[in-house]
Design goal:
By secondary structure, the chain is mainly α. Helices cover about 75% and strands about 0% of the residues. The protein starts with 6 loop residues before the first helix and ends with a helix.
Length: about 300
């Protein structure tokens, strides 16, 4: 037996279906509009980030004449090899010395700071001792102290220790960072299971073996992040070497390029082109380091998903 719906019921069902379809179309239109808005904002931000780098690459390929007379965002004559030759031969090839100094300061300082930060953060996260809360309070409070405020006491301390105008003035102070310790502590709390440490102790492993043989491997992602953040900051540092280094032979690359820029016009070579080309060359190690360390972040994400 077939039941027939009243006319008013059928109209009501059709009305609800039509309203539902209209609502779905409005939601789809709003979603599409918001998607295009987000995409447009992302494109603008990407252009804002990549724009200076693009200008740097283009300007590094130009001669002195075309650098000031052609479009700054497009190529003219390809003069990059000549600019590189002039860069690495100017002033008895001192740019190569500056580049090596920067690699030495940033590499050793970042490596030492990463090991110290991971060890300190691991201890704060996994060991209970008297004064642990006070230690964390001092670490967090140190975030509020500007780095420039520490220049004068650091200058007095390093002078009394005989480290002024030495490479140790650039390496040793960079091995201690309260923010890196805090970052390592937060990561160790989630990455290193306490049960795994207790199982290792039952098997007879000592605390040093647990840390170096097991915990450090679980904290690889945090170590890569800390190393990269400090390496980039140390690579671009300017104020610290300006205060603690006198001789040009010990300068890092940023301070050296700034000294060239302050000279103005030179009759021998276009100093502006040297500074632009040197800035491009000085970014290459950081790009290589970023690409090389991607596998550590991917492995860290995979470990987190398996947990």
């Amino acid at each position: 037996m077939t039941s027939v719906l009243p006319e008013t019921t059928r109209l009501s069902v059709r009305g609800r279906a039509a309203r539902r379809a209209n609502a779905e179309r409005e939601i789809a239109a709003a979603t599409g509009t918001s998607r295009w808005v987000v995409l447009g904002v992302l494109v603008l931000l990407a252009g804002y980030a990549v724009g200076p780098l693009w200008w740097l690459v283009v300007a590094s390929t130009k001669s002195k004449q075309h650098l000031y007379t052609t479009n700054g965002l497009w190529f003219a004559d390809f003069n990059l090899w000549h600019n590189l030759q002039a860069l690495f031969t100017y002033q008895n090839a001192i740019f190569g010395r500056w580049l090596w100094n920067t690699v030495l300061y940033s590499g050793l300082g970042s490596l030492g700071m990463t090991i110290i930060a991971l060890a300190a953060g691991y201890a704060l996260a996994k060991y209970q001792y008297r004064g642990r809360g006070l230690t964390m309070g001092f670490i967090i409070a140190s975030f509020l102290i500007p780095g420039t405020l520490m220049l004068v006491p650091s200058f007095v301390l390093l002078t009394n220790l005989g480290m002024y105008d030495t490479i140790w003035a650039m390496i040793l102070p960079g091995m201690f960072s309260s923010f890196s310790v805090y970052l390592a502590k937060v990561y160790a709390e989630g990455a290193v299971p306490t049960e795994l440490m207790e199982a290792a102790r039952i098997d007879g492993a000592g605390e040093y073996r647990i840390f170096f043989g097991m915990s450090l491997r679980l904290m690889t992602t945090a170590g890569a992040t800390i190393f990269l953040l400090h390496f980039v900051g140390s690579w671009n540092t300017f104020m610290w070497p300006l205060v603690f280094l006198k001789g040009a032979e010990k300068w890092p690359v940023m301070l050296g390029l700034y000294s060239w820029l302050q000279r103005g016009v030179s009759t021998e070579v276009d100093v502006t082109s040297l500074v632009i080309t040197g800035s491009l060359v000085s970014t290459i190690p950081m790009v290589i380091l970023m690409i090389a360390m991607q596998r550590y972040w991917r492995s860290g994400v995979t470990i987190g998903s398996l947990k």
